[in-house]
Specification:
Helix content: 40-55%
Order of helices and strands: HHHH
Structural class: mainly alpha
Strand content: under 5%
Radius of gyration: 14 Å
Distance between the termini: 15 Å
Number of strands: 0
Length: 80
């Protein structure tokens, strides 16, 4: 990707029910069931979000926990 190109924003990160979707993925709900429940999402979009965005958020939470800050990550920085 060239420096002038921008990534498309993640559809799940931009979804109005993002926190609920993240929670459902966190407890193991299948992407297919989320696609049926939330309009505008595809199975592939939910899988990409789970493998990309959600993993980065979890990693950042782990780091803040281990370094003793226990601060909540800035979730807006992970959108798209």
């Amino acid at each position: 990707m060239t420096p002038t190109m921008q990534r498309k924003p993640c559809k799940v990160c931009a979804h109005i029910e993002r926190s609920t979707i993240d929670g459902a993925l966190g407890v193991g709900l299948a992407p297919r069931s989320l696609v049926r429940r939330y309009a505008g999402l595809s199975r592939k979009a939910v899988q990409r979000h789970k493998r990309g965005c959600l993993v980065r958020i979890q990693d950042r939470c782990r780091v803040s926990h281990y370094n003793g800050t226990h601060e909540k990550p800035n979730l807006r920085s992970f959108a798209g």
